[in-house]
Design brief:
The chain folds into two domains: about 15-70 and about 210-235, Pseudouridine synthase (2-Layer Sandwich), CATH 3.30.2350.10; about 75-205, Pseudouridine synthase, CATH 3.30.2350.10. It is built from seven helices and 15 strands. It has helices at about 25-35, 65-70, 105-115, 135-140, 180-190, 215-220, 225-230, and strands at about 15-20, 40-45, 50-60, 75-80, 85, 95-100, 120, 130, 135, 150-165, 170-175, 195-205, 210, 215, 235. The strands form three sheets. Strands 1, 2, 3, 4, 7, 10, 11, 12, 13, 14 and 15 form an eleven-stranded mixed sheet that branches. A two-stranded antiparallel ribbon has the order 5-6. The chain has a two-stranded antiparallel sheet with strand order 8-9.
Length: about 240
């Protein structure tokens, strides 16, 4: 690990990264901080480890824009597995129920997805980073505990199917900050009567930032500090 120089000023702005699978957002922040010997680094919204796609790395004075950047709307693409429910609402969790989804039709899926569009109160899953009395819910879930949660107001602008290859459904969703796409998948399975869980997720847009402008972590780690500054979105552009 390189030692950071507190007297060396950081470039200021946002770096768009296409997060690889199995990396946490914190892993990406730590890797970039250490590689470039940065003093102030953060991120503008987490992704689950097995999700891929856009994360915004905030550097220098860019860290002061965290609330603004995290508050933007999001767009995701992903895949839902019908017939399986898990304790985490995605395929990373333990299977809690299995049903035969063979009777579900494409028309039913489209209808139920359309019904999920609009304002709603969403119940956060137990396997989440939301804290209760200072303890993250996922830590309680690991101990087999389930506690009462407060539903959260969200808005879904779009929830549309791309392709249905039973028992898998590919989709796109546009939603507000704080929406759990895992829970949208779980709720869809409940309404269809067969159960479901999220099997793949990729964030393609966050606020005005798009995945098409993001860099892979492998590319970024070949740069020096000058190249980093050239590839960042500067503060004045935000």
């Amino acid at each position: 690990m390189r030692k950071r120089n507190p007297h060396q000023s950081d470039p200021d702005g946002v770096l768009l990264i296409d997060k690889p699978q199995e990396w946490t957002s914190h892993d990406v922040v730590a890797k970039i901080r250490n590689h470039f010997q940065l003093n102030k680094v953060g991120h503008g919204g987490t992704l689950d480890p097995n999700a891929t796609g856009l994360i915004m790395i905030l550097i220098g004075h860019g860290t002061k824009l965290s609330a603004k950047i995290m508050g933007g709307d999001k767009t995701y693409e992903g895949e839902i597995l019908l017939g399986v429910e898990t304790d985490s609402q995605d395929t990373d969790g333990e299977i809690t129920a299995e049903k035969d989804p063979s009777a579900v039709t494409e028309e039913q899926i489209r209808t139920e997805m359309k019904a999920a569009v609009g304002d709603q109160m969403q119940m956060p899953p137990m396997v989440s980073a939301i804290k209760q009395n200072g303890v993250a819910l996922y830590k309680l879930a690991r101990k087999g505990q389930e506690v009462e949660r407060e539903p959260r107001f969200i808005h879904v602008y779009k929830f549309a199917m791309h392709e249905f290859t039973p028992p898998r459904v590919t989709f796109e969703v546009q939603c507000t900050k704080g929406t759990y796409v895992r829970t949208l998948a779980y709720d869809l399975g409940t309404r269809l009567g067969c159960g479901a869980c999220l099997s793949q997720l990729r964030r393609t847009q966050s606020s005005e930032f798009n995945i098409s402008n993001a860099w892979t972590l492998d590319d970024v780690l070949t740069w020096d500090r000058n190249e980093l500054a050239k590839h960042m979105v500067p503060l004045h552009a935000l």
